[in-house]
């Protein structure tokens, strides 16, 4: 492990808190040190308050902040004298501790201080760094973990046996510090948890962390416990979409809400799930106890979701009897699936959560395999893990709830998604919490958004094979399919029937009608497995109820698509799939309506551009966003009992009325 400290970069950060931000970010950049909000850092600063008094303040990482991106606002300032008094109490419940910490904050708008605030306060050093370094955890999570740590570090570190984070941990650390700390002590190892380093400067504390973790990595190398070979039997190539979608449906049913399920089939994951000892090696528990909040205590082996649910309920009933206070059982659905054919499955309430779970378990696999080289991986006991999973503070968060986004855990497919109405539909669905796959013939679709809940696929929807591949990619990436917005289409130049060529007719029909038939047919088996029922919204046209001269092929194609939708509504109602149509008109903020075209059309009717845009009964302009918002609402519960509806979105068109 290399130090990333750079004098020129460090000079950009002002003051003691600024340097605390800098080195915190250096730690957060390395996922082998901390993952997704893990770890915490602090600095002790003497400063003057508003009435001129000098105070000792501990600035500690606040709840909800990630070390990789933390700013000064992410640190909570807490008065040290009161923290030191709290540390001397014989006992302090978590809820009491949280309350006491909040009463001693110097800024009311700062985030809640870390649950390890008191621990940071009692350590006699200005800068304190805490990580969950993979290399250190690998060594502690073995049968002879403490002996190995002693052998590795000697008196460089104080060693703390595992205990729950919070007040009890702070008390134990204070006791052990007085017993174990030596002049050479530069850190502290918490068994099955992580490692601390200290220093009088930000650079010193950071580089001591790098030094300690590097020693652990070198120890693993010397003991032939570093290099992991990745070779596996790649299962025969066949479509995995149906078993994945079925699994996602069953997990969603067990959880009580839709989930995102992503499968990872790189060789290192397949090798792990195909190990002969997978039944033993994977059923020990997470690498650090805080991971249980994300991954649950154990992964599901294979595809028996109900068996996992039964086992989880038994686990809860077994350990609730030892709990100090009442607990509400969390949902019993797995968060990790290990299957020899499907690979590593990661589950979350949204795409971001699923990505975090996958990241955590990727590191867990490496820790398990390296610990095995040291004589065998050994996680914490089930009672200890239960205590963390059902921690008082986590239960409080559960009680507060927090309403999830309306489409959280659901997956949508949008065609013609790179611009206009399609892009607006993507935005509306993302804003409501859906994971979205966008299809478009424009290659720019791949760069439309860089975020875990969007994936763009260049696709010619007239190519049946391309459509099938796109749907398969959607299911493999997010686990299934719940909503489809059929938006892609072509609006040709006006052409009277007497000059309409057969070639032009077929081209318009292939895009506006035939492609949508293939899409509807291919998504049907996945929409049947949508946890909240499948939904299709068809972007039709005013020309369906009110065709105009010169657009025979366009009007006929949209009318045929509308009729196809009505028939599908009749056939698929039994599958809990609903289909509805929107008939927009005069949507001018799309690619086909350039300023030149608008000016020409307005002039043709003797109108200004603005008059042309609002040439309807209500004298309003209809935008792509208007269409997208209605499409999203038609996928929501407001339209849960509506199918085969046709809704105009035209400001009132005289021909339609």
From TrEMBL:
Entries under InterPro entries matching the protein: Aldolase_II/adducin_N (IPR001303), Aldolase_II/adducin_N_sf (IPR036409), NAD(P)-bd_dom_sf (IPR036291), Sc_DH/Rdtase_CS (IPR020904), SDR_fam (IPR002347)
Protein name: Short-chain dehydrogenase/reductase SDR
Signal peptide: none
Gene3D superfamilies the UniProt entry points to: Class II aldolase/adducin N-terminal domain (3.40.225.10), NAD(P)-binding Rossmann-like Domain (3.40.50.720)
Single GO molecular function: oxidoreductase activity
Span of domain Class II aldolase/adducin N-terminal: 19-220
Keywords: Oxidoreductase
Family named by the database record: Belongs to the short-chain dehydrogenases/reductases (SDR) family.
Keyword Transit peptide among record annotations: no
């Amino acid at each position: 492990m290399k130090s990333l400290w750079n004098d020129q970069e460090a000079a950009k950060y002002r003051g003691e808190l600024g340097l605390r931000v800098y080195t915190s970010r250096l730690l957060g950049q390395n996922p082998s040190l901390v993952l997704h909000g893990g770890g915490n850092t602090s600095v002790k600063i003497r400063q003057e308050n508003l009435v001129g008094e000098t105070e000792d303040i501990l600035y500690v990482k606040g709840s909800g902040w990630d070390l990789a991106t933390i700013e000064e606002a992410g640190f909570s300032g807490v008065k040290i004298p009161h923290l030191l008094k709290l540390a001397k109490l014989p006992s302090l419940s978590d809820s009491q501790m949280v309350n006491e910490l909040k009463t001693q904050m110097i800024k009311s708008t700062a985030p809640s201080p870390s649950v390890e605030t008191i621990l940071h306060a009692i350590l006699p050093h200005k800068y304190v760094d805490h990580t969950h370094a993979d290399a250190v955890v690998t060594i502690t999570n073995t049968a002879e973990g403490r002996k190995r740590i002693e052998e590795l570090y000697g008196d460089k570190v104080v060693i703390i046996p595992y205990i729950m984070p919070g007040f009890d941990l702070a008390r134990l650390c204070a006791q052990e510090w007085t017993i174990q700390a030596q002049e050479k002590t530069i850190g502290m190892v918490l068994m099955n948890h992580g490692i601390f380093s200290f220093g009088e400067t930000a650079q010193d504390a950071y580089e001591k962390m790098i030094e300690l973790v590097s020693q652990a990595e070198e120890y693993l190398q010397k003991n032939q416990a570093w290099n992991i070979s990745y070779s596996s039997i790649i299962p025969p190539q066949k479509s995995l979409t149906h078993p994945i979608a079925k699994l996602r449906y069953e997990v969603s049913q067990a959880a009580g809400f839709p989930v995102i399920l992503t499968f990872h089939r790189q060789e290192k994951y397949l090798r792990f799930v195909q190990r002969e000892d997978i039944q033993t090696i994977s059923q020990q528990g997470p690498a650090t106890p805080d991971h249980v909040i994300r991954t649950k205590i154990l992964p599901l082996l294979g595809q028996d979701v109900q068996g996992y649910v039964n086992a989880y309920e038994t686990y809860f009933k077994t350990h609730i009897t030892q709990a100090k206070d009442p607990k509400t059982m969390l949902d019993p659905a797995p968060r990790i699936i290990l299957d020899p054919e499907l690979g590593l499955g990661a589950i979350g309430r949204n795409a971001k959560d699923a990505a975090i779970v996958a990241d955590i378990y990727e590191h867990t696999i490496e820790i398990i395999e390296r610990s095995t080289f040291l004589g065998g991986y050994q996680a914490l006991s089930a009672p200890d893990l239960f205590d963390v999973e059902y921690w008082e503070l986590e239960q409080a968060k559960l009680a507060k709830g927090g309403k999830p986004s309306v489409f959280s855990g659901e997956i949508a497919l949008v065609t013609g998604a790179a611009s206009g109405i399609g892009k607006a539909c993507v935005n509306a669905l993302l804003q409501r919490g859906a994971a979205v796959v966008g299809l478009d013939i424009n290659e720019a679709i791949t760069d439309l958004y860089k975020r875990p809940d969007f994936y763009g696929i260049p696709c010619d929807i007239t190519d049946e094979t391309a459509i099938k591949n796109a749907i398969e990619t959607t299911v493999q990436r997010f686990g299934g399919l719940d909503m489809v917005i059929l938006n892609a289409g072509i609006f040709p130049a006006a052409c009277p029937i007497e000059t309409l060529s057969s070639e032009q007719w077929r081209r318009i029909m292939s895009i506006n009608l035939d492609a949508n038939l293939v899409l509807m047919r291919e998504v049907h088996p996945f929409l049947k497995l949508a946890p909240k029922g499948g939904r299709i919204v068809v972007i039709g046209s005013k020309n369906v109820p009110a065709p105009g001269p010169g657009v025979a092929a366009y009007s006929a194609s949209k009318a045929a698509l509308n009729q196809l939708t009505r028939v599908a509504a009749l056939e698929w109602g039994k599958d809990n799939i609903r289909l509805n149509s929107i008939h927009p008109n005069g949507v001018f903020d799309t690619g086909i309506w350039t300023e030149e075209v608008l000016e020409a059309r307005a002039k043709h009717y003797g109108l200004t551009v603005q008059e042309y845009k609002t040439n309807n009964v209500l004298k309003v302009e209809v935008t792509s966003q208007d269409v997208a918002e209605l499409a999203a609402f038609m996928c929501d519960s407001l339209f849960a009992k509506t199918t085969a509806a046709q809704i105009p979105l035209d400001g009132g068109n005289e021909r339609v009325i």
